[in-house]
């Protein structure tokens, strides 16, 4: 996990909320309206077509004219990430639709996906108008809020069991408890990451550290257990800190602002997490427990989708049919990599270093087949 990730849910205390609505990769339907901001990214520039635009629904029409893969972010002035689009390849176009309130923002391009990027200050003016929405969406939000809180509540005792094993110096018990301690976090990662100061403490990998940042959290302990074979005084301190940071997350998650579109975008982000971290084997590079994370990400995405499904069914029945099919296909494929049966409640997956290149490609293809229609869910529930 990188130190800075997509925030699809912003703390309720933030008055100037911006809710991301991810669209599919296609040409903008509105060419040059007031709400369209064209972002042209190159290896050394990030140009925006307008620095000021009316608050409300806007569309970032992004084109990467550079030679490197880039990312485009919308940031608050204090650098909290509001929304982003990753992995924009050279010569490709993507779009992101958002609803913004009046205020100051920054649009940043990150060629090579490194550093703070190239930034442009922009301003949303006036006042956005709240649109009436299907009451079933309010029910979906309430149910999802309960779900993410429950995941945080369930994570804490699992993390405490993991930490105790580390503190006892019991490497075997710590290794056994490690993957399951992460399930709740992985299921609700977009919400967890919205608290930008927590994710870098608990879920960052060594190559995601900012300059001068001390490496803490799950992956630091993962390396100690599997690569270094140790659980000494430093690791005991790190395990204690992990529990403290997760308690902070547990206490704050109820304050997150959750919307139907952030749920939909979060589901898509979870699939992106699978594609860029789990399928590649980068996430759990020492423990090779990637398939546990993989399954938890898919479960979290499916939960958000199922809660939004009634409204999506009304607005785009064909999309729902395709999503049902692709979720089922991906879950069936994941079941073939279990070590014990096919009970969806089980997390006994094979070690990912035992999954060959052909099987990894099959998993990747299944993720991509689901991610494409899932990218349209936000638009379907926003109609």
Describe the protein.
This protein is α+β, with helices and mostly antiparallel strands and 383 residues long. It is 45% helix and 16% strand. It has twelve helices and ten strands. The strands form two sheets. The chain has a five-stranded mixed β-sheet with strand order 1-8-5-2-3. β2 and β3 (46-48) form a beta hairpin. The chain is globular.
User: Which descriptor suits the 3D outline?
Assistant: globular
Largest sheet: 5 strands, mixed
Can you count the helices?
A: 12
Strand percentage: 15-25%
Task: Tell me the radius of gyration.
Answer: 20 Å
**What structural category arises from helix and sheet content?**
alpha+beta
Q: How are the strands ordered across the major sheet? A: 1-8-5-2-3
In short:
The protein has 383 residues and is of the alpha+beta class.
Spell out the blueprint of helices and strands:
Blueprint: E1 18-22, E2 36-41, E3 46-48, E4 52-54, E5 56-64, E6 70-75, E7 81-88, E8 93-100, E9 103-109, E10 118-125, H1 135-167, H2 171-178, H3 183-187, H4 189-193, H5 199-202, H6 218-228, H7 233-252, H8 260-278, H9 290-315, H10 317-335, H11 357-374, H12 377-381
Parallel strand pairs: 2-5, 4-10
Antiparallel strand pairs: 1-8, 2-3, 5-8, 6-7, 6-9, 9-10
Helix pairs in contact: 1-2, 1-7, 1-9, 2-6, 6-7, 8-9, 8-11, 9-10, 10-11
Keywords:
383 residues; alpha+beta; five-stranded mixed beta sheet; 12 helices; 10 strands; disordered N terminus
């Amino acid at each position: 996990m990188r130190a800075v990730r997509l925030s699809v849910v912003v703390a309720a205390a933030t008055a100037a909320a911006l809710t991301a609505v991810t669209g599919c990769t296609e040409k903008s339907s509105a060419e040059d309206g007031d709400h369209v901001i064209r972002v042209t990214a190159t290896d050394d520039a990030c140009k925006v077509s307008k620095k000021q635009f009316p608050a409300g629904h806007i569309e970032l029409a992004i084109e990467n004219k550079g030679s490197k893969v880039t990312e485009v972010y919308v940031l608050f002035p204090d650098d909290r990430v509001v929304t982003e689009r990753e992995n924009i390849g050279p010569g490709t176009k993507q779009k992101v639709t958002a609803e913004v309130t009046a205020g100051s923002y920054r649009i940043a391009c990150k060629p090579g996906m490194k550093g703070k990027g190239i930034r442009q200050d922009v301003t949303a003016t006036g006042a956005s108008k709240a649109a009436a929405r299907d009451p079933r969406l309010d029910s979906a939000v309430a149910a999802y809020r309960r779900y993410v809180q429950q995941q945080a509540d369930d994570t804490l005792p699992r993390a405490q069991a993991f930490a105790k094993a580390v503190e006892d110096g019991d490497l075997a018990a710590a290794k056994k408890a490690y993957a399951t301690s992460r399930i709740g976090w992985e299921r609700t990662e977009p919400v967890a990451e919205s608290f930008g100061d927590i994710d870098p403490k608990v879920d960052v990998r060594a190559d995601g550290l900012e300059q001068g940042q001390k490496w803490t959290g799950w992956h630091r302990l993962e390396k100690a257990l599997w690569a270094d074979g140790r659980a000494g005084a430093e690791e005991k301190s790190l395990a204690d800190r992990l529990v403290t940071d997760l308690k902070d997350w547990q206490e704050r998650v109820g304050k997150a602002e959750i919307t139907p579109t952030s749920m939909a975008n979060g589901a898509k982000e979870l699939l992106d997490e699978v594609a860029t971290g789990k399928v590649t084997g980068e996430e759990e590079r020492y423990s090779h427990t990637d398939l546990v994370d993989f399954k938890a990400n898919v479960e979290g995405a499916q939960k958000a989708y199922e809660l939004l499904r009634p409204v999506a069914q009304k607005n785009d029945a064909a999309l729902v049919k395709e999503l049902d099919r692709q979720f089922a296909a991906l879950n069936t494929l994941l079941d073939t990599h279990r070590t014990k049966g096919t009970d969806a409640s089980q997390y006994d997956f094979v070690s990912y270093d035992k999954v060959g290149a052909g099987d990894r490609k099959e998993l990747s293809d299944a993720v991509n087949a689901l991610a494409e229609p899932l990218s349209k869910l936000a638009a379907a529930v926003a109609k």
